[in-house]
Amino acid sequence: MNEKLTAIYNEFDRYIYHLCLKLTRNTNEAEDLMQEVWVKVVRYEQNLAEVDHVKAWLTTITMNTFRDRYRKNVRRSKYMMSQPETLDVPILDLVPNNELSTEEQIEKTEITKIVQEKMHQLDAIYQKTLWYFYVDQYSLAEISTLMKVSVGTVKSRLFRAKARLKEILLSDQKLETVVTA
User: Fold this and answer.
1) Which of 14, 20, 21, 168 could form a disulfide with 33 if both were Cys (CB 3.0 to 4.6 A apart)?
2) What domains appear along the chain, each with residue ranges and CATH number?
């Protein structure tokens, strides 16, 4: 390892470890993840000359590595399962089901109705901003073009709208436990 990589390792080693620990919530997995991250850093050290913010670059590598590991584990767990020789449950119970249960669907529908109902208590400009962002899934830039305001204004409207909607939801006594949970 060259001197620059050694200096980066010495400076950011603890930061990367704590980030890995925060992501995995397990010391062994955090150490494994951290090792993968540093292997990638060494592998892509030629890109280091183009990096303006090393900490951000390392954070991105760490987050991407964590996501890749997570996806790989999910994929593996869907198709591989360790089973005893004799099964005392039907094999279909072991097949993963990605669909929502009936109770979950009903709960989701009810929550959606409640939130939409409470959204009507917001000012029209906030309703429209929330709708564009969360329902129509427009980007901030697209919303700013549609509403003929700056991106910063869209951000502040979103922030205020979410805060106000939370206040409205919390003020409803029967919803307070659902909102804070």
Assistant:
1) 20
2) 3-79 (1.10.1740.10), 102-180 (1.10.10.10)
